[in-house]
Here is the input.
Amino acid sequence: MVGIIGLMALLTVLGLSLIITRLATTALALTGLSRDVARFQARSAFTGTGFTTHEAETITRHPVRRRIVMLLMILRSAGLITIVISVILSFVGTTEHPEGLRRLGGLVGGVLLLWLLTHNRLTARVLDRAVARAMDRWTQLEVHDFASMLKLAGDYMVTELNVQKGSWLDGRRLRECRLHREGLAVLGIYRDDGGYVGAPTDEARLRKGDRLIVYGRAERIQELEKRSRGASGDQAHQSAVDDQQRHLARQEREERHRENPGVDAAGQQPDAGRRAE
Here is the structure.
């Protein structure tokens, strides 16, 4: 009986832990963090892993995020002790081998069931709405779904790009980079000395250690971050511009097709070829 009680206590604690990290992820995401970053920071704080990242620095400077993480740390302190005690109680009195296996199977099955429940879409929607209402009521923070506001879809994203020493960006002004021709937009610049430049002008000079907030296609941003200075970098820039031109042309053809379904993606009438024959 003690073992069954311990098993139930363990599953309850694990279930609450999954729900807590899910709620914390949603709360952090509503403060402006991406969902992936929010999930990582919530789990890091709750488990006490203690990763140090640029995102962690933004959390310590943000009052609402800081409170969320502090609460996770407090809950973690109590949760780990409870889990250890519950595990011990779960297997108390299991002198027989089959009984131990049954309890172990029940534990594994229960954990899997809790994981599926907390990652269910319906459950996620309910929890997300509850957190959004709570933050709207008890904080002065405007909560938004930033991914929907920016209409991020497909391979488009907003992310950080680090300016490395000797990179193609290092030492250039934004007007010299002509990133808009590659389909990229610089939304802001975190300076190495802690300063921030919002909506930078073309005269902003990029320096080693800067972190750019960039919007554009993921593949293009990743290539730009690795681009080196010199002739090879200039050639890569021109290749990126050419690729963007092809992308825009393809996008324009698709838009024409949406407006006029009688025109195929190539911009021709479907029957035009048959009539010519």
